[in-house]
Amino acid sequence: MHRGAQCVDADQTLMDAAKMMRDLDVGALPICGPDKQLKGIITDRDIVLRCLAAGKDPATMKAMDLGGHLHCVRADDDMETVLKKMEQHQIRRMPVIDEHDKLVGMISEADLASGHRDGQRLTDRQIIEFMDSIYVNR
């Protein structure tokens, strides 16, 4: 997990989100409200397909306008729970929240591929099953 993930404010534009993604070298950003609680997530693909390709203006469209159904895990969830949620929803990046629904980090397929999370080691079989569910069973 990458702790301290930055989020885009719900009322910031997609242009702002795209610039943040570029500057942070990431492909997804959590969307947070003024209370810093997680409200959604936006990907670079969302911006391209649901804004630009639809003929909309990223300088006026808000991040929350594209914030889709949100899947996340809790910071104290075990690796089995994280894998199951990511596989079930075919998600490559997932926000991690605390007990107050505040963003504390992001977990990505790269974190899983590195083979561990907070001392929990993944088996080769778990990694293969995850990759199969995300890339093969689409």
Please describe what this structure looks like.
This protein is α/β, with parallel strands linked by helices. Helices cover 38% and strands 23% of the residues. It has helices spanning 14-24, 44-52, 63-66, 79-89, 109-113, 124-136, and strands at 2-3, 8-9, 28-32, 38-43, 73-74, 93-97, 103-108, 116-117, 120-121. The strands form three sheets. The chain has a four-stranded mixed sheet with strand order 1-7-6-5. A three-stranded mixed sheet has the order 2-3-4. It has a two-stranded antiparallel sheet with strand order 8-9. Strand 6 (93-97) and strand 7 form a beta hairpin. Helix 4 (79-89) packs parallel to helix 6 (124-136). The model has no long low-confidence stretch (mean pLDDT 84).
List the helices and strands and how they pair.
Blueprint: E1 2-3, E2 8-9, H1 14-24, E3 28-32, E4 38-43, H2 44-52, H3 63-66, E5 73-74, H4 79-89, E6 93-97, E7 103-108, H5 109-113, E8 116-117, E9 120-121, H6 124-136
Parallel strand pairs: 2-3, 5-6
Antiparallel strand pairs: 1-7, 3-4, 6-7, 8-9
Helix pairs in contact: 4-6
| Gyration radius, in Å | 15 Å
**Distance between the terminal alpha carbons, to the nearest Å?**
24 Å
Q: Report low-confidence residues grouped into runs of 5 or more.
A: none
Specify the biggest β-sheet.
4 strands, mixed
SSE ordering: EEHEEHHEHEEHEEH
Instruction: Give the rounded overall mean pLDDT.
Output: 84
Q: Which percent range fits the helix content? A: 25-40%
Strand order of the largest sheet: 1-7-6-5
Number of strands: 9
Number of helices: 6
Helix/strand/pairing class, anyone? alpha/beta
Task: Indicate the overall shape.
Answer: globular
* Beta-strand proportion: 15-25%
